[in-house]
Design a protein that fits this description.
By secondary structure, this protein is of the alpha/beta class. The protein is built from 10 helices and 17 strands. Helix 1 links the parallel strand 1 and strand 2.
Length: 341
């Protein structure tokens, strides 16, 4: 039985990740996938064949002008986030914006300001915060089970095939390292005071294949972020991702590399995603669905999302921006995030 007033949802940027959002919306009771948008007509036509009950448009402004649409997922190229999210916030829609929040920290600041006067709810999709493994780790840290955090090391590495599809669009640090920088700040409850960065390039893409960042939290804790988008093509894991947190009284490890399902077929040995957006009985399940459902509940209950706030999402961009400046300049960058937003 349908709810009396389902939340009518639009997807702006119906590419690969937009399709995942669309399927996530379809899988949640009380949400209605109502509209899709992509400026590329061919991609829009392909998506409309998959979601035929939706209104389809090449102009996101038409979707924002439609008073019947309550909420939007913005899954465009990250360098378009500022323009599209800014317009969506001004329109009063509820806005779920994929990370990173925008292409510069200054644009992030402006989106934070816009969100404070918008009628709609606003959340940036830092998906890892909705992963039960991560939220349980956060709870253990808050309970003092590992003592005071002194060091952290994260890796979030991709095989060459998916990595090469991204390296002309974004850097490994901004594309994936931002997840772990955000989690480190979330676990510690504060921001770094200084950031180091290094790049290694072995292909001719726009961005370097490997990015490392080191985050100093005064002299009390340190975090290392490793991102490599050039693992061998036959690497069995979907993503080689772990985060180890060491405290004065213990340690914890979040292992996202092993999915629990390994399939050997004529193409080789591969692990299959069972966590982020797997399909089960025709519906999308997993962490992305958790994120969308949480945001939808905030809309229904008229509460501001607090699992990830706009300020936190903006600060994650600011820190990775500093790491990239450090990598390009060959020297550490000092931060003063208390004056950022």
């Amino acid at each position: 039985m349908a709810l009396p007033n389902p939340i009518r949802w639009g997807i702006i940027g119906i590419g690969r990740f937009g399709r995942l959002h669309a399927r996530g919306v379809e899988s949640i009771y009380g949400l209605e996938l109502a509209a899709i948008c992509n400026r590329n007509q061919q991609r829009l036509d392909a998506a409309h064949a998959e979601f035929p009950a939706t209104i389809a448009s090449t102009d996101y402004r038409e979707l924002l002008d439609d008073p019947s649409i309550d909420a939007v997922s913005i899954t465009t190229h990250w360098q378009d986030h500022y323009e599209v999210a800014g317009a969506a916030l001004k329109s009063g829609k509820h806005v779920l914006l994929e990370k990173p929040m925008a292409s510069t920290s200054d644009e992030c600041r402006q989106l934070v300001e816009l969100s404070q006067s918008s009628r709609g709810k606003f959340m940036v999709g830092h998906i890892c915060r909705f992963d039960p493994r991560v939220s349980l780790a956060k709870k253990a840290i808050e309970e003092g089970r590992i003592g005071r955090i002194v060091s952290m090391h994260a890796k979030r590495n991709l095989p060459r095939a998916p990595g090469s599809l991204r390296l002309d669009k974004t850097s490994p640090l901004m594309g994936d390292g931002i997840h772990d920088a955000d989690l480190m700040m979330w676990f510690l409850g504060r921001e770094p005071t200084r950031v180091y960065g290094r790049y290694v390039r072995f292909n001719e893409f726009r961005y370097a294949d490997v990015g490392w960042a080191m985050l100093e939290f005064d002299d009390t804790a340190i975090g290392v972020v490793e991102t490599n988008w050039g693992l061998p093509a036959n690497t069995p894991t979907v993503i080689d991702a772990t985060l180890q947190v060491i405290g004065t009284d213990g340690m914890l490890t979040i292992d996202c590399s092993h999915t629990g399902l390994t399939i050997l077929d004529p193409n080789g040995l591969k692990m299959q995603d069972t966590d982020y957006w797997p399909e089960q009985y025709g519906s999308l399940v997993g962490v992305l669905q958790n994120e969308i459902a949480y945001f939808a509940n905030c809309i229904r209950q008229d509460t501001n999302p607090n699992v990830i706030t706009p300020v936190e999402a903006a600060r994650a961009v600011y820190v990775m921006e500093a790491a990239e400046r450090a990598a390009n300049g060959g020297h550490p960058v000092s931060l003063r995030l208390d004056s950022f937003v």
